[in-house]
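for the writeup, i need someone to sanity check this before i put it in the appendix. the sequnce is what the collaborator sent (i think, or maybe the updated version? ugh). structure was predicted straight from it, no edits. if anything looks off just tell me and ill rerun, i have time this weekend
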Amino acid sequence: MGAQILTGLVLAFVIGYAMKLFNRCDAKNTKWPKFFTVVVFAIIAPIASDLSGFPESKFIFIIFYGYMCFRQWGDDKPEHELAVFWMFCQPMLFGTVGAAVLFDKIEGSQIGKGLIVIFIGVTARWLATFIVTCEKKFTYKERMFMAFAWIPKATVQAALGGMTLSEAQRRGLPEYEEYGQAMLTTAVFAICITAPLGAIMINTLGSKWLDYDGDDPELLAKHGMTEPREGFKPKHTLKKLAEGDLEEDKKELVSEDVPVPDTRSDLLNGQKTNAVVPDDQEIELVKQIE
């Protein structure tokens, strides 16, 4: 097992690092080559690992290969192309898992035990998410929302739920088929319960517990708003303070406790305001105005 995990890690990091070669070309011309490369390796890896006698390597390889691709490509990754491809793959994945469940072989005790396992798992997941997001930049409502947003579980359960049953049948181990059937049943119930529950919680709580804290007109339009939510006042940029009427801007500052610059030169001398950190072009603009 250790050798299989190590093999998957090494191959993932080596091949993933080699994806850096795409950065030598224009990012606009590499979207589709990157997409086909990722898909080819995603298909070849499971087949090669099974044929080579290292069946566990494929899981480690796929996870860390994807991570390495992200590290090498950043925002130039073929995110949209992969999302469209995955949209067509989902029905096949979940359909085959659902078809594998034999309801006539499910015992009532299995359902009860499965629901208990799901409840314990979801509760632990909720608490863990709420605890790890304990930072000043998040409110309690935002932390609780993130915890509820992590409730849905489907993809991993669909991919791995039937593996024990499939392996037991392949090796002719009837004593393990019962355990495999129980695991598959629990995975299917986890999908049926947590996926819709999580979607409902996200759609319901998102509009109540989260606020869009920006003033971008395009983003406001996407949220069906023409101006920021009540109680929110957009932060000033250095460019606005440099070009606009400072006296009017002073009245709109978010907090009265924040020192307000009396002159534009105060901005260049490090006077603390609600302005966001300026870039070099904005600093140069203020210097020109001075």
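Residues 103-210 form one domain. The two ends are 68 Å apart (CA to CA).
thx in advance!!
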